[in-house]
Amino acid sequence: MRVLSALPTPVATDIAYRLWISLGRPEAVHERDRAVHERAVTGTLEVHGKRVTTYRWGHGRRVILLVHGWRSRASRLSALVEALEQPDATVLAFDAPGNGDSPGRRTTVLDYAEAIHQLGEQYGPFQAVVGHSFGVLATFLAVREGTAARRIVGISGMHDADGIVTEFARQLELPAAVKARLRGTIARRTFTVVDDPWARFVSRVDDPGIPLLLVHDRGDRVVPFGELDLIAADHPGHVEVLRTTGLGHSRILSDPAVVEAVAAFVSASVTRVG
Questions:
Q1: Mean pLDDT rounded to a whole number for the chain
Q2: Is the pLDDT of residue 272 over 60?
Q3: Is the confidence at residue 216, as pLDDT, over 60?
Q4: For the purposes of burial, counting CB atoms within 10 Å of the CB of 23, is it exposed (0-12), middle (13-18) or buried (19 or more)?
Q5: Thinking of the domain 34-159+205-272, which architecture would CATH place it in?
């Protein structure tokens, strides 16, 4: 990656952009998640011309949506599925385009948000939406732009798309000129239909009646720990936080204490249904 710093700015920017949009090979279902994955009822959506695989566990009146992160898949959230399954609950998830069992090579936060919106139209309103990592940003976007959700849980989430570019540039040790050019390239090539993606793609909702639970690990090497405080400070309503240590970016999803906290937060809103 450090070689990029020695290349001419346009060349380095083009390579960095290719890395930015690359999903790589879709992740397979981990053996620990297989039983939960295989008992789901599967379906499909069409999102911006792309096929999206959906998953459903149960058929109760309380609907909870789980949203996976970048280069991931719904089955990674199996511990949460098991904790949230109840006779009166429906648990939903999906594989974003190019992730898991959904075909494709590219996806954006707009694809995630559209999948959330369509599932909300079909099953909503959501009792809660639980997002992980990139799925947190997509969750806030979808809810702020019309998807009905009573509660939001953000696990290892980032506050805004601009912060993602900053962290990406830091990890690749990109010079300031390359980072600036990359930012413009992303806006121009990826979000041609969006006037200002940096203002639009923010983990924020304007409704103070939607409580948040934010969970983040101090040692997260993918999304900086400080993003939790940025999201919390930007919310006009009730916020609960759970700061963990030693779980990193992904193991946090199956930690018993975290799973229990998420299930309790979601269940606390049962009386608001109807």
A1: 92
A2: no
A3: yes
A4: middle
A5: 3-Layer(aba) Sandwich (3.40)
